[in-house]
Amino acid sequence: PKKVTTLTIRAKKRRNQKITMVTAYDYPSAVHVDRAGIDILLVGDSCAMVELGYETTQPMTLEQMLHHCRAAKRGAPDRPLLVGDMPFGTYEFMDSDVALRNAYRLVKEGGMDAVKFEGGSASRARAVRHVVEGGVAVMGHVGLLPQSISVVGGFRAQGRTAERAGQILEEALRLQDAGAFAVVLECIPSNVANIITDRLEIPTIGIGAGPHTSGQVLVFHDLLGMLSHPHHEEFVPKFCKKYASVGLAINEGLDSFRQDVEGGVFPGDGYSPYKMSAEETLRFE
Ligand code: KIV
Ligand code: NA
């Protein structure tokens, strides 16, 4: 399998081929994302919410990210492009060296090929430029910025006024100028994403941004229905198509196991493979 690089991703936009990106946070999910032929594996800080049960992505630490990056890397060591999110509080400082130091950790200790930053302000773009100059490829991220939830007030669509849409376009252009190789567009109107995609040289990867982006990203747990259950509501974002209900299969398996054990059906003779010889049995019993 040929390794996907930032060049592969840029070439796909030029050839009008759609780019696929899915999150993964551990060994089995990374194995699945690799085997499915997804271009980019994102170890997203959405991990905080879907894997660790936090309400937001803000609590995620660099140490936790590294732990998940290493597991994902072991599951997909040589094909998809591996991108790791810079967690909240590890790259926003005026001193861009902090961002560079932490980006190096995601590459050297986490095994990532590239890192992702949220936001497109002038100071953020300075940090992106500094990290790219330091030799680490950076993916940008504009529109809804989950790490800024305490400023924004909630997880909701962005860029719905002409002014705000213009701002998001400016931010995306600024990130491109700073050396970002691609940019995520999160929760913005389709027409805005379309114009940004046209105006940018680098690819756009959309989530809740309509069909006109260079590629699409979804969160593993959301697209696969990991928390589907026969008697509990599952939260799935409006923009997310659910391609499976894996949670139903998990529930079925666990429920059958419980019933089998409680009913004396499992393990039975069929799953009790270790036998003692007649001679030893005689001596023992
Ligand atoms: O953390 C994440 O899953 C992300 C994607 C939604 C782009 O940043
Ligand atoms: Na993220």
UniProtKB/TrEMBL annotation:
A single GO cellular-component term on record: mitochondrion
EC number: 2.1.2.11
This protein's record includes keyword Transferase: yes
Top EC group: transferase
GO molecular function: 3-methyl-2-oxobutanoate hydroxymethyltransferase activity; magnesium ion binding
Keyword Transferase carried by entry: yes
Name of protein: 3-methyl-2-oxobutanoate hydroxymethyltransferase
Source species: Thalassiosira oceanica
